[in-house]
Amino acid sequence: MARRFLFPLGVLLGVLLGFILIQPNDLTDFQTHLALLLDEFEFDVSLPRFPQLDLSSVENEWRKLRNSIPEPWKLNTNGLEFTVGETIAARGLSAKHPVVLVPGIISTGLESWSTAPEYRPFFRQKMWGGFSMLSQVTFNREKWLNGLLLDPVTGLDPPGAKVRAAEGIDAASSFIQGYWLWSKIIENMAAVNYDTNNLHLAPYDWRLSYSNLEVRDSYFSKLKATVEGFVFKWVESPQHGNGGPDWVENHIEAVIHIAGTHLAKAMAAFLSGEMKDTVQMNPAGAYVLERFFSRRERRKLFHSWSGSASMWIKGGDAVWGNTTFAPDDVDNRNQTHGELIAFRETVVKALGEHINNMTADTASNWILEHTPEHFQKMIATNYSYGIERDEESLKQNALDHTKWSNPLEVQLPNAPTTKIFCVYGHGKETERSYWYTREAYEYDEVQPDATPAICENATNCFTPRAPLDMPLSRKSMIDAEYTDNALNPKVLNGVKMGEGDGTVSLLSLGAMCVEGWKRKRWNPAGMQVTTVELPHKPVGTIPRGGGTTADHVDILGNTALNEIILKVATGAAHEVKDNFVSNIREYAKRVQWD
């Protein structure tokens, strides 16, 4: 007999929010997965009407639901567990090189260590990841938000709150029980004799800037001291790592970038707290998200998390194009991705003001002008987003930590025998540029529009304030009402779609790998760089696509990716060759490298 559960919109929001921020796949994919799950275990979903919610009874029902979900979820398996590792082991290959897995932004679980009275109920509970997060988002939203916000000035812990990265292999194995992240790779590595003695997952608090990761947690120093399987630019710095210029050559066999966000990702989120998934939700889901977790609140989180600024667009117009051309524009186009932010003529007329379409350079400055001053200062002291072509300047940049997260402004290490592998998916529509709209004025703590802010460049932007007690700013947001499938590239809910893995655009994934790092200017030691593109061919009957998906996150369960990792780890890296399914080599040659 089917069991009946009360499943309020608030709980649904918790689930949606978690996957919107950690897994930027199409929301419809997750909704399908959730429907399969509920149907599998005969859950009957009932949606009560707002605002007649008895939160105490709702929370009780949530706890019942949480305790009644069987382990493991259907989403946890795809029938391919351990098979790649067993195949590699059958060839007589076994663990050779120690391996460090460094998860991407927002993959690591975060847990509360605060003993302040208001946070004691959450002590050692997950603030990010896990069912406890979903419960807190739904029933303790304000405390959850305040717990995850960082101090806007220092970029470190705010008063009273103390959140730290979870530790160990489980820190980024799964987001919630059954929704795997790195666990598929760990399973296959275990089949070729990897365990906690030679396999290390290096979780970190992804909210922090790289500099503050070292200041607060000594992350890079600890990683260097305890593991000889991976290294960041930090270890070569005489001020910090004391590893010396040959450390990478002496300690690192290979680096594998999995769906690496080398040159850009989340620009719209900094301006309006949005991304493709939030504007392409169905109306009911969009209402729930905005009702419980508004654009302003989402934007406030992004402005607080200085680590997120590492995904700011790099290289400007030289990489991303101008008002008439972009390197990844396709044939027979009738609009260009070079206009990163554009406005419909009807929107401009309705505003009654002149506003131009924007390229990467002008959009970066415009977005910074609409961020708090503390965020602008954080950017200026932690990051740089230009392109440096002078080799002597590149050498000097090795001593400037603000350059290290930008591959266009720093050289690869002096490690001629260390190998780099870029592995990513292709074949899933990906947000590339945007149509924006502006609406009525509203109170905004960021800045008023009365006195236009002026940024000289994207790394030196401080907003002049107008002498108003109630600063007003026009609301800027993705033009979600604008869809045109006849355009090339097509527009879906204000997002101009391009090529990529569903989350990261193709230029960001592959341009440095196939062209930038092939040049002595950025790769003076001539490190070998191999690029493997995996076609996105998901199996429709398997949740999350099975072993042939190449989606940004689900690629971690891709059979070919797992084979590559195991071959490199077991000493068969020579078997991994370049493989292309896109036009990335052609696109990359159009970038203004010189």
TrEMBL record:
<dbReference type="InterPro" id="IPR003386">
    <property type="entry name" value="LACT/PDAT_acylTrfase"/>
</dbReference>
<dbReference type="InterPro" id="IPR029058">
    <property type="entry name" value="AB_hydrolase_fold"/>
</dbReference>
<dbReference type="GO" id="GO:0008374">
    <property type="term" value="F:O-acyltransferase activity"/>
</dbReference>
<dbReference type="Pfam" id="PF02450">
    <property type="entry name" value="LCAT"/>
</dbReference>
<protein>
    <recommendedName>
        <fullName>Phospholipid:diacylglycerol acyltransferase</fullName>
    </recommendedName>
</protein>
<dbReference type="GO" id="GO:0006629">
    <property type="term" value="P:lipid metabolic process"/>
</dbReference>
